Amino acid sequence: HTIEQLKHIRHNVTRFMMMYEFALKELETKIEILNDEFLALHEYNPIEHTKSRVKSPESLMKKLQRKGGAQSLDEIRETIRDIAGLRITCSFTEDIYWVCDMLKNQTDINVIEIKDYIKEPKPNGYRSLHMIIQVPVFMSDRQESVYVEVQIRTIAMDFWASLEHKIFYKYEGSVPTQLITELKDAADSATALDRKMEKLRHEIESIKLAEHEHEEYEFID
Ligand code: 0O2
């Protein structure tokens, strides 16, 4: 390649990666609006926190190799749909489906795929709701539909997944059987905790409702 050609490639790659940063910025604002609105109306935060990342070039190259490579940036874009990732952590499992529905309802968002690893956890115990969506990004000379992978989980699911991820990498994929069993056991405990917390939440809500009805009754008297 000549210097000019290399400059051109670099320019295109920079623009390509920037597109994912923009898509994440847009999506994060959308999530913030939903959360703030919900907080104002219900005095409650369905989202604990969010974390976004653009895949590192090393990790992108590895995944591309696994998928058989690509000839152009357009091909990379279609093959690797998690270059931009947003992880949303909620307190309760119910909130996960609320966030998912809210994203589905946004008319400028295209939902491409949903994988529900909560209803059907992975054999190792991994739970999370994954969505592949397309977000429109408006730039000076064009509009792009950008793929983003959204992972929505509870705090317990996130705690488990981050530990499992570390262990998986430490053992480079070949985790000892004993650890696999213990991890599965921990995943079951995380599921039980999520159920327990949701049950408590419902109990607290019904107490609040009863108090509210009682106050109204006194007011009418
Ligand atoms: P990283 O480093 O988190 O980005 P794909 O490989 O994406 O084409 P797949 O495997 O069907 O197809 O995608 P899936 O199941 O939606 O999972 C993609 C991402 O979910 C992973 O990204 C992880 O972030 C997370 N994930 C999936 N399974 C597990 C699991 O068993 N344990 C943990 N800790 N995370 C999981 P990457 O690219 O693998 O890694």
UniProtKB/TrEMBL annotation:
Name of protein: GTP pyrophosphokinase
Superkingdom field: Bacteria
SUPFAM superfamilies in the cross-refs: Nucleotidyltransferase (SSF81301)
Ranges that cross the membrane: none
CDD domains, sorted: NT_Rel-Spo_like
Gene3D superfamilies xrefs: Beta Polymerase, domain 2 (3.30.460.10), Nucleotidyltransferase (1.10.287.860)
Coiled coil regions, renumbered to chain: 183-210
Pathway, per record: Purine metabolism; ppGpp biosynthesis; ppGpp from GTP: step 1/2
EC numbers, comma separated: 2.7.6.5
Positions of the RelA/SpoT domain: 52-175
Signal peptide: none
Species of provenance: Paenibacillus hunanensis
One MF term in the entry's GO annotations: GTP diphosphokinase activity
Keyword terms: Coiled coil, Transferase
InterPro entries recorded: GTP_Pyrophosphokinase (IPR052366), NT_sf (IPR043519), RelA_SpoT (IPR007685)
